[in-house]
C-alpha cells in the first residue's frame, strides 16, 4: 500500500496504531526508504519574533494572555536582530529559519514588517518559514510574493478534542488558513501536539485530518506537549513514549512523501527514544538551544547524537518540495 491516499478512515488508522510495534516500525521504515535517505535529517531553527500577550487561549501555550506564566512579553523584533539570529542559525548548520509570532492573525501593517524579514533570510541562502496565526488569501499571496517557502499552522489535535484545548478559534478557521496557504502556492507545514491528555482515537483523528487534506502537507511537525507551569495543561499525565513513536510511524505510513518533524519535546527525550523516532520515519528536527520560549537540546548534543547514529543534516530542498508531494 504505497499509493498516496486522502480517504483514510479512523478505524483503519486505529488498526495501524494497534499493530505489534515491530511490525509497525518495519512498515514505516520500509516506506520511509522508498522516498527518503534514511540517514538524513532536515534541520530548522526557530526564532520567536514577537513573544507573549497573545489573545488566543490555547491551553498548552505559555504565550497566551489567558494564562499566568513567566513569559516576558516582547514587541516585534527589529529586522537586524532577526537577520543576526538567522545568520547564526545558518553558521551552526540550519538550512531553514522559522519565525514565529504570538498573534491571532497578522494585521496588514504587521505583514509589511514581516516581508523584509523573509526577503532578508532568503538572501542569506536559507529556506524561510513563518507562523503568524490565521491568514487571509490576500495575505498568503503577499507572503508568497516575498519568496516565503513554508507557512506553519497546526491543526493541533482531532476535531472532537480541539474544543477542550482552545475556545477562541475554531477548527474550521485553521482549515481555512491552510487552504489559503495551499492556494497561494506556499509549502504547507501542519501537524499537531500530542500528550495533551487526548485519546489514541484523537491522535488518529489528527493524522486523519492531515492526510485527508486535498494535498498532504510538505512538512508535518509532531510536537510532544512541553508542559509549562501556569498553563491549563500543566500537570496532565505524560504520554507513554512508545505511543509517541507509534504516532510518528503512523504519520510516516499515511503521508509517505511528507517530511515528518520530531518537533517540540525532545529535551525530555532520551537519545534512544529519539533514535526510535528516526527509525519510525521522523526526518526533521528543530535545531538550536531554544524553540520559541522553551528550551530545546543544545546544538552540540544534537550534533553528537546524529554522529552516534551515523546520520547527517540534509541540504535545503524547498525547490523540489512542492512538486514532490501529493
Ligand atoms: N500564534 C501562531 C499560531 O498559533 O498559529 C504561531 C505560533 S504558535 C506558538 C505555533 C505552534 O506551537 C502551535 O500551533 C502549537 O502547535 C505549538 N506549541 C505551542 N506551545 C506548545 C507547547 N507547550 N508544547 C508543544 N507545542 C506547542
Ligand atoms: C511547531 O509545530 N512547533 C514549533 C513551531 N511549530 C512553531 C513551536 C513549538 C513551541 C513549543 C513551546 C515554546 O517554546 O513556546
Ligand atoms: Fe497564541 Fe499561537 Fe500560543 Fe495559541 S499557540 S496562544 S495562537 S501564540
Outline the structure in words.
By secondary structure, the chain is of the alpha/beta class. It is 40% helix and 14% strand. The chain is built from twelve helices and ten strands. It has helices spanning 10-17, 21-35, 79-91, 108-123, 137-145, 159-162, 171-184, 200-211, 241-254, 271-279, 299-309, 318-324, and strands at 40-50, 96-101, 127-131, 150-152, 187-189, 192-194, 219-224, 259-262, 284-286, 312-313. Strands 1, 2, 3, 4, 5, 6, 7, 8, 9 and 10 form a ten-stranded parallel beta sheet that branches. Helix 8 runs parallel beside helix 9 (241-254). The protein is globular. Bound molecules: S-adenosylmethionine, 6-(5-methyl-2-OXO-imidazolidin-4-yl)-hexanoic acid and iron/sulfur cluster. S-adenosylmethionine binds next to loops.
- The H/E string reads HHEHEHEHEHHEEHEHEHEHEH
What's the overall average pLDDT, rounded? 93
pLDDT < 50 stretches: 318-326
What general form does the structure show?
globular
Kindly report how far apart the N and C termini lie: 15 Å
Say how many strands there are: 10
Ligands, ions, cofactors = S-adenosylmethionine, 6-(5-methyl-2-OXO-imidazolidin-4-yl)-hexanoic acid, iron/sulfur cluster
Percent in helix: 40-55%
How much of the sequence lies in strands comes to: 5-15%
Please report the number of helical segments. 12
Largest sheet: 10 strands, parallel
SS-based structural class?
A: alpha/beta
Radius of gyration: 18 Å
Amino acid at each position: 500500500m504505497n499509493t498516496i491516499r486522502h480517504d483514510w478512515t479512523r478505524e483503519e488508522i486505529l488498526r495501524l496504531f494497534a499493530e505489534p510495534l515491530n511490525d509497525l516500525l518495519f512498515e514505516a521504515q520500509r516506506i520511509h526508504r522508498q522516498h527518503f535517505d534514511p540517514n538524513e535529517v532536515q534541520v530548522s531553527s526557530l526564532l520567536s519574533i514577537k513573544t507573549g500577550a497573545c489573545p488566543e487561549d490555547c491551553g498548552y501555550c505559555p504565550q497566551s494572555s489567558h494564562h499566568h506564566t513567566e513569559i516576558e512579553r516582547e514587541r516585534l523584533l527589529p529586522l537586524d536582530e532577526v537577520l543576526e539570529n538567522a545568520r547564526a542559525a545558518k553558521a551552526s548548520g540550519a538550512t531553514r529559519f522559522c519565525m514565529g509570532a504570538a498573534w491571532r492573525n497578522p494585521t496588514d501593517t504587521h505583514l509589511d514588517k514581516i516581508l523584509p524579514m523573509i526577503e532578508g533570510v532568503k538572501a542569506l541562502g536559507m529556506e524561510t518559514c513563518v507562523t503568524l496565526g490565521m491568514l487571509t488569501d490576500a495575505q498568503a499571496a503577499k507572503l508568497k510574493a516575498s519568496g516565503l517557502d513554508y507557512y506553519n499552522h497546526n491543526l493541533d489535535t482531532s476535531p472532537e478534542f480541539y474544543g477542550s484545548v482552545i475556545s477562541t478559534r475554531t477548527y474550521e478557521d485553521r482549515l481555512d488558513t491552510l487552504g489559503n496557504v495551499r492556494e497561494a502556492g506556499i509549502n504547507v507545514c501542519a501537524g499537531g501536539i500530542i500528550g495533551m491528555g487526548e485519546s489514541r482515537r484523537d491522535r488518529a483523528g489528527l493524522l486523519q485530518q492531515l492526510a485527508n487534506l486535498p494535498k498532504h502537507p510538505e512538512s508535518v511537525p509532531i510536537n510532544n506537549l512541553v508542559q509549562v507551569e501556569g498553563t491549563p495543561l500543566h500537570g496532565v499525565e505524560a504520554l507513554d513514549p512508545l505511543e509517541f513513536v507509534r504516532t510518528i510511524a503512523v504519520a510516516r505510513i499515511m503521508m509517505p512523501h511528507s517530511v515528518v518533524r520530531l518537533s517540540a519535546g525532545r529535551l525530555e527525550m532520551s537519545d534512544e527514544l529519539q533514535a526510535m523516532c528516526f527509525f519510525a520515519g521522523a526526518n526533521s528536527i528543530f535545531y538550536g538551544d531554544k524553540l520559541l520560549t522553551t528550551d530545546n537540546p543544545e546544538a552540540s548534543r544534537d550534533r553528537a547524537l546524529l554522529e552516534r547514529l551515523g546520520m547527517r543534516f540534509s541540504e535545503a530542498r524547498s525547490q523540489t518540495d512542492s512538486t514532490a508531494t501529493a
